[in-house]
Design goal:
By secondary structure, the protein is α/β, with parallel strands linked by helices. The chain has 2 domains: about 100 residues, no CATH class; about 325 residues, Alkaline Phosphatase, subunit A (3-Layer(aba) Sandwich), CATH 3.40.720. The protein contains 13 helices and 16 strands. A hairpin with a 2-residue loop joins strand 12 and strand 13. The radius of gyration is 23 Å and the shape is globular. About 45% of the residues are buried.
Amino acid sequence: MIRLPRRSFLKALSFGASAPLLSPLVARLQAESRGVKPMRFVFVVEGNGFPAVQAQPVGIVRPEMPNLRNAGASKQNGAEALVDQPLSAPGVSLPEALAPLSRHLRRLTILQGLSGRVCGGGHSNDFGALGAYSARAGAKDITIDAALARANPGIFRHVALAIARDPKPSIVYCCSASGPDQKVPHYQDPALAYNMLFGRILGGNTKAEVGTQSMVLDFMAGDIRRIKGQLPREDADKLERYAEAFASIARRQSKLADVDPHRIPALREEIYKSEVEIKRLEAHFDMAATALITGLTNTVTLASGAGSPNFEVTFKGLGITVDKHQIGHRSVEGAEKMELKTRQFHMELIAKLVDRLEAVPEGKGTMMDNTVIVYLSDSAENHHSTCYEWPMLVLGNLGGKLKAGDRFVNVPKYGEKGHRTVAGFFTTLLHAAGVQVNHFGQQDPELKGAVVQAGPIGELLA
């Protein structure tokens, strides 16, 4: 058995080196002991903009006003007051772009009118899209997906998958960060990602390997408890929390051996080893569902042409021969139809992900009952975005922690009393996950007076 030198270990603890890693595990351990079900978060980030008109339900009038920054851009939200209507109301239906989500109407919330001016706009807001900070700053700080993964870790804290303009790099860095200058790698190669996630379960003597690791972790936890009697009470209590965390790691490692390989679908070469972008994206969604169902992770980010210059992906598998950059500029005939076809393809992938999670029982319901899927574009509302509004889709309510499902919510226009930002929405997600922060990301210095930028969005938080 490998023995970690006690002095070296205690020296590391004294400097707090392990605290950032162990604190979320301690929180998770406490939650599990109270019988709290895991919360799951999925972010689908598509490049090249999500026009508000494609998110506007048929039968609900959209108040509009000229774009404040770009006269040539599409008109923006002009609502004077909050609009909150059920999607299932008589005479209301989903727009054509979102039609595949119709079968999940009771779980769907459409958010309109949120702004993200601090991000900057343009072709892509890069890390700012999920971080609610300036795109020009690069990976300035943690993004919302990584923050939720930290608060609710699984065996793999965060699984990030992507397709980019250039299909050759196996890994890209496009929209997620775990901290300042800490870019999260997104796997582009589905076969590589599959092996990374499931290889240890499907091949090799996983039980023996995990058993050895658990013995080492158990020893470390026991060693901590043996010496805590020599310390002052405050330090002893802190050390006890470390011991509990190491015991939690051991239990989590042991779960790798308990994952049933039969629940992991075989690698389908026709999609996992395909060079066609829609097949690779389909493989990523397939992997995301499997990783969530088997308990390997609680947080997944799926990036489709997100980040500069990845918005130039060409969806040849849909019969489209020009890239999304040209489509965004409307410089080719039939650009709007191409954009619609691409959007519907993404919506169908999301709908199928919901189908799979709904098929897995959990407690008195299904896995989807404790999951939330957020769809947005890294480029906000347009190919050349201004970020005065940032349409988003939310599917699921995290076991009732969010007031979500069968809702269309349009916050008041930019600068109006009641207006809220993307940062406010991300703060809401953190509150739903049990992280009581006052604000996430950067505040908008242009918003004054009655516009609230602190705390969660009350209309969305249960």
